[in-house]
Amino acid sequence: MRTFNWAILGLGNIAHKFAESLTLLPNARLHAVASRSVAKAEEFAAKFGAPHAVGSYEELLAVPNLDVVYIATPHSEHHAHTLLCLRGGLPVLCEKAFALNAAQVHEMRSVAQTEGVFLMEAFWTRFFPAINKALELVAAGTIGEVKHLTADFGFVATYQPEARLFNPALAGGSLLDIGVYPLFISKLFLGEPQEIRAVATLAGTGVDKNCAMVLAYDSGATASLFSTLAAQTNNQCVLYGTKGQLHLTGRFHAANGITLHLTGQEPQAIPCEKQGYGYQYEAEHVQQCLEQGLTESPLLPLQFSEELMKQLDTIRQQIGLRYPGE
């Protein structure tokens, strides 16, 4: 079995979770880490046993025997760091939100195709066993025709204007950080919307603190979605069909099972595997793609990510949120 050498670019909280998740894959190892601080890189490398630690992102390109890079910097930096790696010939798994806007995603996609290098958005939700099982059940017509989907994601974040979540220079706000999850799940199950309407409450820095979205689809289905940095929500997703309901159990974006409520029947619990944080599922899929010589994922193609980014652009336009430099 081929072992894949991973690098992590950007060493914040999510990078630690990803590094820990890699240890659950027998054919993956953390080979290199990159930070703007060499001391931080060396500390991270020591913690996870990575043989290479560099103090700039550019230096990562010179590390030998790298197979793939996971980019875990703030949203505002994804575009530049992805292009850096792609042009250096390194396959990329880039954290969501994929970029600031659809124009950036389009360029990332074009460069990946021109260079013939693998690129995928790190939307870990797509690869959880519970999500795959839910997609199977819906496709099989288990709950009939889906007529409505609800999804929410919210937590209480301390208001710090310079912090990542509230800083417009770092593409802060609830929408790009967590609102993207309800939007993603609605697209995964219902496809491209015919219409999007959004309203928001803005924080003092001008980024969205609350964002509520309603969507309509050609199929006749609708969706109601919500994200907030001001309250703890249930982080649930429910699909309502003509024959019953499907609930993703646990936090829907990292679901650990499904509950089916079919009309006239007792609720049925379907547990699904969820090991650790769950980032290993997307990493394993990337390795399978690389093993097959693919330059994009058949389960999460770049077209999907670009369309999702266009939805985010539409919502930001409606709520009056622009980021510096746009």
UniProtKB/TrEMBL annotation:
Keywords: Oxidoreductase. Residues 132-246 form the GFO/IDH/MocA-like oxidoreductase domain. It holds the Pfam family GFO_IDH_MocA_C3. SUPFAM superfamilies: Glyceraldehyde-3-phosphate dehydrogenase-like, C-terminal domain, NAD(P)-binding Rossmann-fold domains. Residues 4-122 form the Gfo/Idh/MocA-like oxidoreductase N-terminal domain. InterPro entries: Gfo/Idh/MocA-like_OxRdtase_N, Gfo/Idh/MocA_domain, GFO_IDH_MocA-like_dom, NAD(P)-bd_dom_sf. Coiled coil: none annotated. Belongs to the Gfo/Idh/MocA family. PANTHER family: OXIDOREDUCTASES, TRANS-1,2-DIHYDROBENZENE-1,2-DIOL DEHYDROGENASE. This is Gfo/Idh/MocA family oxidoreductase.
